[in-house]
Amino acid sequence: MKYYPVFLDLAHQPCIVLGDGKLALEKAAALREAGAEVRVIPSSDYRPGALAGARLVFDASDDPAINRQSWDEAEAAGILINVVDRPAQCRFIAPAIVRRDPLLIAISTSGESPFLASALRARLERWLGKEWGPFTALVGRVRRGLRERGVPIEEQTNAYRRLLRSEVRQLLRTGQGEEAEALAASLARPGDHAGSVALVGAGPGDPELMTVRARELLADADVVLHDALIPPETLALCGPQAIPEPVGKRGGADSTAQEEITGRMIELARSGHFVVRLKGGDPFVFGRGGEELRDLVEAGIDVVIVPGVSSAVAAAASIGVPVTLRGVSSSVAITTGTGTHWQRRVRDLARASDTLVVLMCRTNLAEVAAQVATAVGGSRPAAVVSKATWQDQRSVEGSIADIAQLADQAGILAPATLVVGEVVRAVAVNVLQATAL
User: Fold this and answer.
1) What Cα–Cα distance (Å) separates residue 177 from each residue in 138, 171, 174, 183, 268?
2) Is residue 115 in some structural domain?
């Protein structure tokens, strides 16, 4: 069954609720909140003809005989009726409502699962704070002002986008109404407006591991400059107006120079665009986020920083290995198998830490493993995780002396993370013991 969603103006309109129980009282209260003039008729008092003149009726009597009579009466009189829990006797469905007046969000499952509609409402209520009510009203005032001044639709839309990604909602959330009004007025004025850049961490791969803030900024972006290793599922979170631009840097493949990436961000921001620089993992963990932040600030560009879940911890966690474990590992070192003098750095960190994590190491894994084995011995437990948290994630475990050969035999591909330490073996043993129990 298909339904046509509408919002009804029931202010001062006669509505009737049949029934005596809690559900009837809830329906009556919801109608009164909408401004309706509500009459509740107990089940024992219902007689044919009682619905005359009503605009809308809820039958919450849970009495099959009354259900049939009220349905027939309403149908004959052309009155909208909802017989609760009787989809075949409903001319409308009452959705689950998220109320942030004047913002209303209605959720319906076409009668398939009221529980699911209620669960979705609870999620949206947690996401949409109380500030969305006054924010919606504020945007409405801005809209009326822009229309009165004859501002073209395209310029109006740009003003609404600036409002949506601004700090106006945060100001309203903290009770700073006057400051919010002033900021909104400045953003609604015609003319050039400065753009900005958000350095956003996309996490290790699974879009579900992105922060709420990261997802919101993706939805609001004008342009998204993204790394090569951002999965399509993550890019699908971009808003319909966003233009994705790949600027990935891959070893041995065509890459975009860092200077070009920074220059592009500055160019777009100075043109008034909101740019999201989307980077795998965390921008500040071997992601050149610090370099980009420095250059953007020097260029006078406003920058927002949104950390992400780094593969430095996510890769190990994705196979059930914590990088620290009481009684086993109380220190972690994170490095890469690239750069100047990386061999000495890897050896020193392997000796100094209980757990060593080496990022971006698949290309020279054999050499990295050899350096670690030289420092701590070839029997140290190790694991290599490829495409951590992606749907095609793969991993192998073994001694550091054998790990490169095991990875080759298993066809482990880049990007890959090497984890070395007793935590690999200790947790594997614990898991096996728990399974045996």
Assistant:
1) 10, 7, 8, 10, 31
2) no
